[in-house]
User: Fold this.
Amino acid sequence: MPTSILDLFRLDGRVALVTGAASGLGAAIATALAEAGAQVAVHGNRRPATDTAAAIGSSAAAFQADLGDTTGAAKLFDEVKQRFGRVDILINNAGTIHRDAAEEFKLEDWQRVLQVNLTSVFQLSQLVGRDLLARKAPGKIINIASLLSFQGGIRVPAYAASKGGVAQLTKALANEWAPHDIQVNAIAPGYFTTTNTEALQADPTRNRQILERIPAARWGQPEDLAGAALFLSSRASDYVTGTVLTVDGGWMGR
Assistant:
C-alpha cells in the first residue's frame, strides 16, 4: 500500500511506450513518465526518437516504425517487447494532419490520416491489451484525442473523423477491459505549439481568433500535458476509465 498520496503517481517498475515521441507532446509525456520512474520506449514515425531517449537517459530506448503502414504497429510492438519484455502503459500520441477543402481532399490523404491517427491506435491498443490480458496484468492505455473529437474543424475532414473515432474507440475499449484492471482513457489537447499547428500559428487572423477564444489567453506548451498524462498512467487514476480529459486552457468551456 502507498505510504503517501504521492506514491500513487510513481511508475517504478513500469514500462511505457510513447508513440510520436521524437518531439513536442510525445517527448514531454515520455520525459514525465521517466521522471516518475518508468522505463520508456520512445517512438518516432520517420526516424527513431533518439534525441528524446538521449535526453531522458538510460531508462529510455528509441524506436522507429511507420504507423502509416498497416504493418508498422506490429513491428513496433515486437521490437519494444524484445527490448523491454512487456508494455504496461501505452500512450498513443503519434498523429498526422492534412489540410484541404473537403471537395478536393484526395482519398490517399484521407486513408493515411485515418491509418496513423485511428487504425494504428486500435492496432497498438489491441496488441498491448491482448498481452496484458494474457499476463493477467493491470495496464493503462492513453489515447491522444483532440478538440476536433468534439468539433468539426475547417479543411481537416480526415483529422476530425479520426479524432472523433479515437474518442469513441477509447470508450469502447474501456468498456471491455475495465473488468480486467486495464484503464483506457484519452486526453484531448487544445491548441498547442506543435508542428501540426504551425500553419495556424503563422496565420495572423487565425492565431488572433484562437487566442481570443482561449480563457487562458495563450497557446499550450507540451509540458502542460505532462501532468494529465502522468495521472492517467498511474495508480492515482485506477477508478478513471472511458473518459476524454480536455487540456485546453478552457476552450471547451467558453
